[in-house]
Amino acid sequence: MWEPLRDNAGLLVDGLHPTAEGHQALHRHLYALGR
């Protein structure tokens, strides 16, 4: 599940919690998996 955030520290607030953009990236990733 963390694949879209790997190697992109800009999508994490503190190295663990996603930013708003990180949440969007996770949503796109999970949506694509569910199709």
Helix and strand sequence: H
What is the helix fraction of residues, given as a range? 40-55%
* Total domains: 1
Distance N terminus to C terminus?
15 Å
Low-confidence stretches: none
Q: Tally of extended strands?
A: 0
* Mean pLDDT figure: 94
Can you offer a commentary on this structure?
3% of the residues are buried. The chain contains one helix and no strands. It has one domain (3-34). It is mostly helical and 35 residues long. The chain has one helix spanning 20-34.
What keyword list fits this structure?
1 helix, 35 residues, elongated, single chain, mainly alpha, GDSL family lipase
In short:
With 35 residues, the chain is mainly α. The chain contains one helix and no strands.
SSE order and pairing:
Elements: H1 20-34
